[in-house]
Amino acid sequence: MEPAATPGGSAPPRLENFRRVVIKVGSSLLVDRAQGCVKRAWLVSLAQDIAALHKQGADVLVVSSGSIALGRTVLKLPDGGLKLEDSQAAAAVGQIALARIWAEVLADLNITAGQILVTFGDTEERRRYLNARATIGRLLDLRAVPVINENDTVATSEIRYGDNDRLAARVATMASADLLILLSDVAGLYTAPPSEDPEAALIPIVPRVTAEIEAMAGGAASLLSRGGMRTKIEAAKIATTGGAHMLIADGRVEHPVARIDAGPCTWFLTGSNPVTARKKWIAGSLEPRGVLHVDAGAARAIVSGKSLLPAGVTRIEGNFARGDCVIIRNAQGGEIGRGLVAYDASEAVLIAGRNSQDIESLLGEPGRATLIHRDDMAVAGD
């Protein structure tokens, strides 16, 4: 179910061709501020769209805003800007309500929802990145729908994403999604703001984010950047670099995802895919912090597409931490690949050469069965 990159000027991709989809939902679409509640009929229609993708075999993740908007109503906080502590209090109350509502509408369609709250460090620091990625991967394996939001109860202005467009793009990259959908209050990217220019035209396909495209969104120094089109262009750069197509679509209608193939919307295309983009990042962008020497059996398994198990490791070099990039060498000393290691060096030494079933007794706590998972590995020939 992997979509091919679509060249500029040709027909846009079709939703049915994607295997892993991230859908971002903004507060203005989800929450009726006047009533102080969720737009339930609209959300039910979106949940039905999610169920349809799910039925086709696609993995679906949701990045949902709305916790502060819901919580401030419950706490009767005033309109307008909130102090940091008030925003965090509103988020604490709203996150419970938001998670419950998502769980209910998806459960009505026999889909299990799982809540994940992330902070900036969870996608920027490799150790925490691996933890979050593993949790998301397991939920998807179990056919659940992760509902993800920034943890506004603890994030401060210095360590937060600031908008869920960029958060959604980071999640798409972390989850190796091949499509990111930003549901918005506009139908896509226009040549100029349609509210100001009656001649503004929708751009259906953006083959590559160029300086000209960025200028249409207000430019890098735009005062309107936060939460506006500029953040969506930034999200497009993150997503397409990570191997995912991205689209902006009008979310103000019912069944907003089901309507995408009929348009109008704007597609931002990638020339890569999540697997190759990730492996290129591991192989060429990270400085190795250590070396794992493996036996002939492990080397054959790795080259054939398997993960690296502790049993196949014969020697360890370096003082690396979990999430660091390490080199994998065969018995002759040749480099056969690189990957993100799942254990600190001190732990790896203890479990090297041992069966994965022994990890808990050796370390005193349960651990991951692999030293390097195949998804976190770049092997020669990939």
Please tell me about this protein's structure.
By secondary structure, the protein is an alpha/beta fold. It has helices spanning 27-30, 40-55, 67-74, 84-107, 120-124, 126-141, 164-174, 211-216, 229-241, 274-284, 296-303, 345-351, 359-363; strands spanning 20-25, 31-32, 37-38, 59-64, 113-118, 145-150, 179-184, 205-206, 245-250, 265-268, 290-294, 313-318, 325-329, 335-340, 377-379. Strands 5-6-4-1-7-9-10-8 form an eight-stranded mixed β-sheet, sandwiched between helices. Strands 12-11-13-14-15 form a five-stranded mixed β-sheet, sandwiched between helices. Strands 2-3 form a two-stranded antiparallel sheet. Strand 13 and strand 14 (335-340) form a beta hairpin. Helix 3 (67-74) crosses helix 4 (84-107) and helix 7 packs parallel to helix 9 (229-241). The radius of gyration is 22 Å and the shape is globular.
